[in-house]
Design a protein that fits this description.
15% of the residues are buried. Among the domains are: 16-59, no CATH class; 213-319, Arfaptin homology (AH) domain/BAR domain (Substrate Binding Domain Of Dnak, Chain:A, Domain 2); 411-473, SH3 type barrels, CATH 2.30.30.40. It is rod-shaped, with a radius of gyration of 45 Å. The chain has a five-stranded antiparallel β-sheet with strand order 4-3-2-1-5. Helix content is 62%, strand content 6%. The protein is built from ten helices and five strands. The protein is an alpha+beta fold and 473 residues long. Its main location: membrane.
Amino acid sequence: MRLSVISHSQQPWEAVRAYHVIRGKAGLSHARTSCFQSPSHPRRADQRSAVMTIISCFASYPTSPAMSYELEEAKSGRLKGSNSMSSLTKETSLEDPNNASFWMPGNYQRTVKRTANSFQACNDVVACFQERARVERQYAQQLSEWSSKWRPLVDAGPLYGSLLQAWQCFLSSADRLSALHSSICCSLVSEDRDRVKTWQKETFPKKMFCGFQESQEFENGFTQAQKPWTKRLKKLDKARGAYHKASLKKQAARDREEHARGNPDIPIEKQRKIQEEKEQAVEDMKKMRARYEKVLEEVTRYAPRYMEEMESIFDQSQEEERKRISFLKQTFLSIHRHLDITNNDSVKAVYSELHHALMSINEQDDLRWWRNNHGPGMPTDWPQFQDWNPQEKPKNVQKQIEDRDTPERSVMIGGVKVRALYDYEGLEIDELSFKAGEVFLKIEDEDDQGWSRGIKDGGAEGLYPANYVEPAL
């Protein structure tokens, strides 16, 4: 029988299903000699039923929050792009880098708008992790529903002993994980969201009508710093235009002079006039150049002061942005701390106890228990010769038959360790008292009245409510 055909990429329940099919085929091939398919062996049918129940149980196990979120988002198409994050999208500019420079007039607007963008970013962060909180809540609810659905089926199933306890541990682990993910949801909503909202309200005071006070202050500061600079740039641009125009005029006059020189068709008087126009154009060009250089020198002298004033306001903006980045960093770290279940001691304890329960599965103990409770190990009264005693009353044969048909409480060989969930004070002399968290042995299974029998380390023995304890790992 080969099981290596099962791929490592298959889900655990698929591997169990494949194993079950292979075992079924093997059993059919030996139907004449094997008891696997025989109606006289209900235990085999119970095993097949248990395998199919395990497959159904873990096939319906809820997916993790991240996976369920991605599946839901993929179905709705929201992973392809969302308009809600437009404020955080980087825009590619095809403009001239010089024209897009911060130092050019009006280009401080990107820095001013950063305040409004940061405000919107806070809204996006809150909306994003509110949705994650809903995912956590839904996952917690699915875990709880899964556990509640399968607990009675598992308890009433055909498994027994340590194997049953291991299966039950999966369900109790799901309940504890459900509580954990519910607490994550509460943390994301009550702590992180409220912290961002409170900080946002304090950090971004708004104007009476619209906009933010911080944006208006930076707008006014940059405008005042750029006003004299813009005035000088306009003057410089005008001087440069005049100089370039004079240079063009000079070049045209020089071209006319070269064309007229040595041309017999142009009178001498006309040539002299063209030469005078060229000389005048050269003189005008020199004046415009001197004026242009003077204005440029004035602009150059003023540049350090302009840069100092602009940087002073920009540094104020940077400081405010630094505070915002620092706050959001701490917020993200807080969210990470709430979501990072890999370092959560409760989660580690859940999976540690679950692993311990799985490693505690002992086929020899389970087989011994079955032998002692349902097999050759069961006690019986073998027929013996009994002498007649005239003083004994004749036994009622019908009463013996009825007593034989009355189901007896199942006695556990060695007992099973259980832990008390609640305090219980015995009301009758044959009842066992204990405190929550106390560990003792269960020596008889639950009867039809809901009572089990247990014994403490000190030897105290008695009945107790079966639903007051859980298996102790």
